[in-house]
Amino acid sequence: MVLRMPKKIRVGIIFGGKSSEHEVSLASAASIIASIDQDKYEIVPIGITKTGRWVLGEGAKKLIPQKVIEAGRPILIPPDPQVKEILPMPVPSESRGGSTASLAHRPSRGPLESNAIDVVFPVLHGRFGEDGTIQGLLELAGIPYVGGGVLASAVGMDKDVMKRLFRDAGLPVPKFLVFRAEDLNSHRATSKRRIASMIRFPCFVKPANSGSSVGIHKAHSVRELDRALADALRYDEKVLVEEGIVGREIECSVLGNQSPLASVPGEVIPIHEFYDYEAKYIDEGSRLIIPAKLTKAQVKRIRGLAVAAYKALDCTGMARVDFFLEKPSDKVYVNEINTIPGFTKISMYPKLWEASGISYTELIDRLLQLAMERHKSRARLICSYERPEPTDPE
Ligand SMILES: Nc1ncnc2c1ncn2[C@@H]1O[C@H](COP(=O)(O)OP(=O)(O)O)[C@@H](O)[C@H]1O
Ligand SMILES: [Mg+2]
After folding, report:
1. In DSSP terms, which residues pair with 11 in a beta bridge?
2. Residue 341 and residue 221: Cα distance in Å, rounded?
3. pTM of the full predicted structure?
4. Region 307-335: what's the mean pLDDT?
5. What is the pLDDT of residues 39-91, one digit of tens each?
6. Ligand 1 atom nearest residue 270's Cα
């Protein structure tokens, strides 16, 4: 009797990207590639350079510096100029009924052919990856992918819209104001007066679309606001000014589609005054406490809020929900959601699942299965009008 091995599932891992979180993505991808269940899955690496060009196969692997693979965490190394960029940014040139042939430029039959890849794990953080753009491309291509869909990804990326949806769902969020570049440029004094009358100092100034604390500043006085606003405006045309919460930073991982589960919460203790870019990736000394030292009631509250925040944005697959636990009031605030959280083996998202009983390799497996399940259930939806069954007369 000949036993035929089941066909391996081909997983496209898309990493890198035109984002300030490029290096974080390389480290996450390296971890996933090293830990995925190789008996079940076959990896197709797809790298995107910092300039937005797509690199395939061995060239893609070369985007990840050896040092990052060894360290298992993000290291800021300038990109290797030797890496050959063989594909231009894919542009859907024509609609072919869900086929993806048009996405890869001819004559090269790229890996985004629907018969070449069964599922994609986009390991892209920040803009052009976590924000619905790549998700939209994959939707058009008809390929299942890990994580939130276009809507959840896009609103999860925009701190203004995200927080308004949280507030609408009755979730506690710190008080915030939103300003557009034109308001700030032409009415700077009025805007500053509005901030001073409505927001308690110290406050946080954030580009609406950012991540990894890039462009985020803590302003202790109206005087410090100017510099903070000017810098935040370099990253986005919309900025938030948010009341600072004094307390602890707690994070909770969520996993699932229709019935999401929340992990045990963890705590971040930043080495700096707040969890800025350097405290996250450059200066060693920030600590992750897993599980966080919390009372049973606090854990219950945080896990409940994490699932509520996830549902408020229509998330699927995964997300990490971040909180502030205010001292001494014990009040919990939802800060933000990350739809593609850091995914190295030592990152908070997988670490919290490990502490909740799901290993890193199993987590990757579950996420890929969730992606394929979501795709299957959405494929069942009809997309043309069908007359509903007539109801029986009473
Ligand atoms: N309202 C706030 N009160 C206290 N600290 C804050 C507040 N907003 C942001 N921070 C600090 O700034 C960090 C980054 O802000 P966050 O909104 O999480 O942006 P990012 O998406 O870049 O992580 C947080 O982890 C926290 O240390
Ligand atoms: Mg954050």
Report:
1. 43, 119
2. 32
3. 0.90
4. 98
5. 999 999 999 999 989 998 888 988 988 877 777 777 765 555 555 444 444 43
6. 27
Range list of H helices, the chain: 22-35, 57-62, 66-71, 133-141, 150-157, 159-168, 181-186, 188-198, 222-235, 277, 296-312, 348-355, 360-379
Correct CATH for 175-243 of 3.20.20.70, 3.40.50.150, 3.40.47.40, 3.30.1490.20: 3.30.1490.20
Give the position, in ligand 1's atom list, of the atom nearest the Cα of 174: 1
Residue 158 CB less than 6 A away from ligand 1? no
Decide whether any atom of ligand 1 lies within 6 Å of the 216 Cβ. Answer: yes
Q: Judging by DSSP bridges, how do beta strands 41-48 and 9-16 pair with one another?
A: parallel
| pLDDT computed for residue 344 by the predictor | 93
Ligand 1 binding pocket mutation candidate from 201, 212, 213, 272 (most atoms within 8 A of CB): 213
Q: Is 242 in the pocket of ligand 1 (CB under 6 A)?
A: yes
- pLDDT confidence of residue 354: 98
The CATH code that applies to domain 9-145 is: 3.40.50.20
Q: Report CA(149)–ligand 1 centroid distance (Å).
A: 24
Kindly state the DSSP code that residue 314 receives in the 8-state scheme: T
Closest atom, ligand 1, to C-alpha of 268: 25
CATH topology of domain 247-377: D-amino Acid Aminotransferase; Chain A, domain 1 (3.30.470)
Tell me if 118 sits within 8 A of 10, measured CB to CB. yes
